[in-house]
Structures are given as C-alpha cells and as structure tokens.
Amino acid sequence: MFTIVLYFCGRKIPLFIGLYNYMKFQELNLSDSLLEALSFMGFEETTPIQEQAIPAIMDHKDLIASAQTGTGKTAAFILPVLNELAGKQYHETKVLVIVPTRELALQIDQQIQGFSYFTPVESIAIYGGGTGSEWDQQKRALTSGTEIIVATPGKLISHLNMGYVKFEHLKYLILDEADRMLDMGFHEDIQKIITYLPKDRQTLMFSATMPPKIRHLAAKILHNPVEISIGMSKPAEGVLQAAYLTHENQKTPLIINLIADKPEVKSILIFSSTKKKVSEIVRGLRGKGFQVEGISSDFEQSRREEVLRSFRSKRTRVLVATDVLSRGIDIKDIDIVINYDVPGDAEDYVHRVGRTARAASSGLAITLINERDMMSFSQIEELIGNEVMKLPLPDGLGEGPKWNPRPVRRSFHGKGQFRGKGKPRSRDGRKGNYRKNNR
C-alpha cells in the first residue's frame, strides 16, 4: 500500500491506493505489430479487465464483462480482435462494434487506429449528424468491406434499411456500454441489427453495470459466455470525492471561488442536468474571464469535435456538458469533475466522477447538493458504500442548507406525477427513453 497526498482548499487529504501486480502486454501472446504499436503509445502493463478479458477472447469465447469507467475496456476487446486480423487485409467486414453515442464511436475508432498502426487493418466510425459526403464515405466502407465498423444503432439501421450492407463474413459482434444503450431505448434496434449478422460469430458484451435487463439480453445473444466483473458500481480508488451543500444561486459563485486562484488546475469538467443550465454556467464563468466552452446534443457534430479537441489540448480550461459526456469520452488528465447537479441516477454518478482518475491516476470529484437533491445523494452514498465528505462553503458565499437527506415534497407536475426520484424522464414523461430528453 502507498499513499498519495492531495492538497485542496488548504487541506492535506491522503488518498490510499492499493497495489496491483500488473501483467505485461508481452505476456499475452499478442502479435509483434500490436506490441510495437502499444510500445509506441506508451502502454506497457495491462489493467485487470485487460488481463482477464484478452485471453478469454483470444480463446474464442463469448464474453460478458462489467467494469467501471476508465479501466481500459476498449483495449480489452480491440487488442485480441486486432491480433486475429493483424496478418492480412481482408477487404471484408469482420468486426462490428455497437456503441450508444457518436462520441464513443469516434473515441473507439481513434484508439483502433492507434493500436492498428503497424497492421493493414482499417476501421471507420459510423454515426449520425454528418453531411452527405460522410454518408457516402460510410456507404463505401460498408460495401467495400472495411474490417472494423464502429457504429451507433440508429445510423447503422439507416444503412441496413438501404440493403447494401455486407455482414456475411462478420466474425465479431461487440456491444460496448450495453447498459447505456438499453437506457437510451436501443433494445429493439440492437435486436434488429443482430438479425442481419451471421449466427456463427463471437459476441462480446461490455457494460459498466449489470442490471437484469442486461442479463436478459445476454441470455439471448451470448453462447456459454465467460463472465468477468471488475469493480462494478464503485468510483475508481484514485478519485477523491467531496460535496458542498448549496442553495441553487450559490452554485456558480462557488465554482468561480474554487477555481479562480488555482492556475495549476488545467482541466475542469462540469456536468449539468440540462442544456439550458449549460448555457447559464458558461455565461457566468465567461463573465469572470475563464476559458470555458459548453457542449450538448444541440451542437453540430463538427462543432462538438472542435470543442472536445480544444479541451483535450488544454486550450479550453473548463468544459461544461450535459450527460452526453458522462460515459465513453476518453479525455485524459482531467483534474476536477464537478457535478453542478446531483445525477438523476446513482449509477450515473459513478460514470461522471470516472472522467477523472483515469486508470491509475488520481483526481477530484465535487458534487453541489441543494435541498431537493439531498435524498438522491444519500442514495448514491449507499450505492458506493462510502459517505462523501461535506466541505464548508468558502467565506463570502453565505450559509448553505443543512444536511437533511429526507424526502422533499416536489411540486405537482402534470397528469398526476410529481417531479422526483427514479429514472430520469424525457419530455414526454416516459421513463428510460433518452432520445427526446433534455440532455
């Protein structure tokens, strides 16, 4: 056991992180071309999910795996697949990776390009929101046989409906962030896509959580799978978690106070519950001279990519986002994640704070809790098995509410429903359907 000490707001806070005996990638019998690419990218040791999943996949087993955000799941399924394909260029689609969002599709495609740099294997990300020329490029990839396709369900079905997609030589189906796809209402889309695929294939399912609906889907599409579970529903050990009890009008002044005199903090990611709040937070921080950008599903894809590039390169210090970024975006070296609002689902908290302390690093996650969200946050603490420390508000911001995690009566909100607990609701009031919600 070793100790990392983090200084925050004048306090010396120890973080204890357990030792893990990491395996070297050379021990996994990967091809020389992959090992060369891994060395070039600075990858030497496996994470636990990689150590367990890669041999099972190379042994041609179906797999269902759960692992928290930031544990290296992408490499866990891409490396063994690339190892199988590395010897030649097939000009046939061999691998289909299905993901819930455009951002995750782009991230995985970028990682594939890095891992496959010294191989002839090609890949493409297929997602919505692009131009006509991008549609044509996607069509060519699906008809000419690009080896690896990374796609969102809706866009892939649009191509499948045109009748030209060739999947007869597919060997691998990979579902990443499967729980999120079902939360977003993609269950029927996934089932439809599977009808276009060969039955003789290897199927790999990766999910951050393992609720009954995932078990049900796995039973339908997997054959005698190997099952792996790594640290489910717990923030990474390197994440220091803290919270402030605030009134709503204190939140933006509190953020300004926290980051104003900390030039060493280069990368700050703020999550809010709605697109409207993203705009309000951005205006408030820009008014104080901060380098800040907002991002939400309203943005054109090109603009979203531009904002993310600026944040990754540290040209933008603060990024304010809705939950579109809570999973699947590989942005390294984020110093602080701030939950402007308590997540509507306890599992979402784990994914949000997982944006910091990626892999073996450390980071800080702060949650701002108003009176209405105290009960929800106490449920989060119960889920993660840890009471998050509540810090006093800085001088000059006034008194915040007292910690009182009892149900607060919500205002009446149409057709016999109250605003409140449970699954986040879309604009039409239905649970679990995220396609038309306010993120």
How would you describe what is shown here?
The protein folds into two domains: 212 residues, 3-Layer(aba) Sandwich (Rossmann fold), CATH 3.40.50; 153 residues, 3-Layer(aba) Sandwich (Rossmann fold). 33% of the residues lie in helices and 18% in strands. The chain is built from 14 helices and 16 strands. The strands form three sheets. Strands 5-6-4-7-8-3-9 form a seven-stranded parallel β-sheet, with helices on both faces. Strands 12-13-11-14-15-10-16 form a seven-stranded parallel β-sheet, with helices on both faces. A two-stranded antiparallel ribbon has the order 1-2. Helix 3 packs across helix 4.
